[in-house]
Amino acid sequence: MSEILISPGRVTGETRVQGAKNSVLPVMAAALLVRGEVVLRGCPALADVDSAVHILRHLGCAVRREADTLCIDASGISDYAIPDDLMRRMRSSVIFLGAILARTGQARMTYPGGCELGPRPIDMHLDALRRLGAHIDEEGGRIFARAESLRGAEIPLRFPSVGATENALIAACAAEGTTTIRNAAREPEIADLVRFLRAVGCRVTGENTAVLTVEGGMPSHGTQYRVIADRIAAGTYLCAAAATGGSVLLHDVETAHLATLCGALTEAGCEIGMEERRISLRAPEKLRAPGMIVTRPYPGFPTDLQAPLMAALLRIDGSAVFDETIFRDRYRHAAELAKMGADIVCEGSRAIVCGVPALHGARVTATDLRGGAALVIAALSAGGDSVIAEAEHIDRGYEDITGVFARLGVRVQRIGGT
Ligand code: EPZ
Hints:
The structure is a single chain. The protein has helices spanning 21-30, 47-58, 84-89, 97-104, 123-131, 162-174, 188-199, 231-243, 259-267, 306-312, 332-338, 369-380, 392-395, 401-407, and strands at residues 3-6, 12-16, 37-41, 62-66, 69-73, 106-110, 135-139, 142-146, 154-156, 178-182, 203-205, 211-215, 223-226, 247-251, 271-275, 278-282, 293-294, 319-323, 343-347, 350-354, 363-365, 386-389, 412-416. The radius of gyration is 21 Å and the shape is globular. 31% of the residues lie in helices and 25% in strands. Ligand EPZ binds at residues 22, 25, 92, 120-125, 159, 161-164, 303-304, 326-327, 369-370, 397.
């Protein structure tokens, strides 16, 4: 259990943005396909990346970390099961399913089950793998997949699931023949995975569109690859500056990936500047309400920034409306924000934030990664110190949060745990 103490202050200064967690994880899974060394740069030091390293090592891969670089050699893979504790530690471990199956002919893991964001079904992942020729048994919360060989297939997804697209893509690279994934996710992290797969010799086209085509069965080789910047971490720091009347300059950002957030923050009264790989934000003393925020698959407004933006808007003039269409239960931070004096009413997929004149410091609990980040943002804009319990949720996605905020002129201190 870890706790952080937050003293309010204006978020002002410059920092670089970490590599994208949600790119590194699927790329680490895809490295299982490669017989040769994969040198992966830009890997943030995060609990989820550590969990993925544990999974790779458990499977028999050699993994070395040097600063932000991971060197992965999957030549010696000797296992096909992910232990239950690693599945529990990181529910998105399911992105290893297609890769393990493709490489070893079988895969065993527990069902990720329900989690902080509501139910996390994996029916589309399993359907995609079955279409590629896998036999999958599900029993007592366990999944056992096997396939002597995989063959190319048509994979229509009923929703552009990020994880299902990743699993299908990775497995299709090892299948004989052509695979077409329709209604594929278009998140930037998918395009990053496609670029990595091409770098190791796979033939994949169609990134940034809803149709991905894979010519499978190509021999793969080692490579050096740098993952893209983390748009959600960058967006979180922009929201923190917006919430506190601050001013920030972020380096190493993919500016195009932040278009919808920047649109909302501009409507709220922030001045935003973008130049190649840099983004600046200057916030007014008081934000105004932007139009309704509806979370959608990319290029829509990202569900992962719903909570951070909500936290930035707690003291607006008037009210802001959110509609969360991606995850069913992603407003658990609202009750914690209310402990700081926020006025939020949640009804089904909608949340209405009525601006309050001020927030006060409080003892709150992080309910999930992005909800935890929202608590940090609200605490920075409150009238007194706050303590956030179960801050380990936040460490799953934000590298060196105390250091980053120190560079941005505010105090986020660890007071317990790791
Ligand atoms: C990825 O999760 C991200 N995780 C999430 O970020 C992000 O919130 C999400 O995409 C949406 O952008 C990683 O990349 C590791 P989905 P994923 O499959 O792949 C339903 C963070 O904070 N669905 O696109 O699990 C599902 O229930 C994390 O960094 C099915 O019904 O998301 C949800 O309602 C949290 N059946 C919707 O689709 C399936 O088989 C979108 O989920 C799969 C998904």
